[in-house]
Amino acid sequence: MSLLTDWFDGKGAPASYEQIVGDIKKHHLNDGTLYVGSDSQFYNTGVVLSSALILHGAEGQRGGRYFVNRRKLKPEAYRILAVRILAEAEQTIDIATHIVEEIPDIKIELHVDVSNTDKNEATSNLAKMVIGYVMGSGFDCKIKPDAFAAASVADKHSK
What we know:
Elements: E1 7-9, E2 14-15, H1 17-29, E3 33-43, E4 46-56, E5 64-73, H2 81-102, E6 107-111, H3 127-136, E7 141-142, H4 148-158
Parallel strand pairs: 3-6, 6-7
Antiparallel strand pairs: 1-2, 1-5, 3-4, 4-5
């Protein structure tokens, strides 16, 4: 499954990648920011990995709009939390890279579903690695509690 297919909007209607890029270009022209994040949910029958593109903060915009992509993966390779978190980060980076190739000067922020402030959080020991991966790929990175793209929108669609 390609990351450029199988997208839908916040209302559940199918959306083509070309349509999404067109909407992002309009959003960008109105000084909006694009937020990209992914989340996953492990089930015995598979892993659901969802990614969200959130358009927010454009001039005259009320609220935000988003698009989601969901992929079902085989569970065997993703039983280990670190592997799933890296897959989430990789997918987020891949999507952002595609968009930056289309719109090089876009304001974009990547959100990853890790926390380095709550030591009780299972992902706290992975935070530095994932942040380094995202920033080393050339993107700004936010983590929980500021990672709303991953922690709320993508999370909602991974369940």
